[in-house]
Amino acid sequence: MKTLIDCQNKNYLNYVKCISPKTNQKRSLLHAFWVGGLICSIGQTFRYLLEFGLNLKGDELSAYVSMIMIFLGGLLTGLGVYDRIGKYAGGGSIVPITGFANSVVSPAIEFKTEGFIYGTAAKMFVVAGPIIVFGVASSVLVGILYFIGFRVF
Amino acid sequence: MNRTIIFKNKPSIIGTSTVAGPKESSGSIADFFDVKLSDDKYGEQSFEKAESKMVFTAVKNSIINASIKESEIDAMLAGDLLNQIVATTFAARNFDFGYLGLYNACATFTESLVLGATLIDSGHLNNVVCVTSSHFSSAERQYRYPLELGCTRPPQSQWTVTGAGACVLSHNGYGPKISSATIGRIIDFGVVDANNMGAAMAPAACDTLLSHFKQSKTNPFDYDLIVTGDLGTLGSRILKDLLWEKGFDIDKQHVDCGELIYSICECEYQGGSGAGCSSLVFNSYLYKKLRKNEFNKILLVATGALLSSLSAQQGESIPGIAHAVVVEN
Q1: Using the beta-carbon criterion (under 8 Å), do B150 and A83 form an inter-chain contact?
Q2: Cβ separation of B147 and A106 shorter than 8 Å?
Q3: Is the pTM above the cut of 0.95?
Q4: For labelling alongside A148, which of A62, B121, B208, B306 has CA 20 to 30 A away?
Q5: B153 contacts in A (CB within 8 Å)?
Q6: Which of B185, B200, B167, B195 lies closest to B290 in space, CA to CA?
Q7: Which of B53-62, B77-86, B152-161 has the lowest mean pLDDT?
Q8: Is the ipTM of this complex over 0.85?
Q9: In degrees rounded to 5, what are phi and psi of residue A21?
Q10: Helix (H/G/I), strand (E/B), else coil: B207
């Protein structure tokens, strides 16, 4: 049942939506694309260097590349540079693994004032927590499906 | 129902002081601030402690500027944006006068003026200090994301002002007087976007202004300036449209503190916001202009968005509030 207030609110919200400044979608997408692409290219460069320079292969190679990218993400966050990249690139800097590092390191730095246990340690995953929870949960689900699949087929 | 008070023994604002953060100190009205900080931690270990120190400094200096002794102050009416208003509470530890903690988000400053003026007008108290503060970093920590997180801000968001502004209201003494005030009521038009505070608060500002004009029998042309606290560019436009609908045009008199405080509006999106925004601008720029008689009658309407981080996550809309105060020579 629509009340008068609901109708008034709907009119107001439509009006606000019309006159609120819109994000320039094309520009944001372009920024995200080229910065995200650049970060991934840097990761790929390290991969080639390690593969042909140190002859690493398979899982070990992937692990090393991830470690380097996470380190760089954390370092740039600590230096106060990553938030500026993020302000410009948006999704392009959030999505790669460097963004994950940023989301863990930034609250860790921020909450240092509350001490190492209740501050840094407790609040470290306040932004990245959902990534970890849903990541683990979905891998469990996939594992169950594989298990059933094996049994059945 | 009457929410407008016309004061009989109009209290005077006999002294003010402001402490502004680094970004504000390079803004368009920076010359009017008393203390301009270059370090947003103010030499302290945390942003919360820094905000508290800013409040303490502003209160102390405002009492000095008012040329009275600390022992003559009866009470301090204060508020800020932190949980349990710790910035002002902890600053009040250093003083011997009474403390009344207030919270109305960014409308806290005019709330303190309304209540302080009422206490003095009634004859119960002689001198009170009204102070509010906000700090960008401590507010971001509490309400939004860690500072170093690489995320974008939408174009309708505002930048929380780092600053504290204090004023001394007195029964006697020379200074611009608070002649009337209107207590606002909570207005919620269903805005859920926590980044669009201007849209959430504009209806409350409209309601308070309409009530004020009606109950005090005045109209926009009676005032030199109609100053809103932190509606920002978008919120100001919405307010003018809403008032225009009701037959009032405040375009010639209107200015927003959030728009005044920063020089370049582009990087700060809609302008400044925060409990410190209106008190910083009023206690520096507007007060000094009033004392020089460059303005003679100002209607100050600070607006607040009464949400919490939990309420936003629970899908609740944002209620707004606005209190109005008339300050005249």
Answers
A1: yes
A2: yes
A3: no
A4: A62
A5: 87
A6: B167
A7: B152-161
A8: no
A9: -65, 140
A10: helix
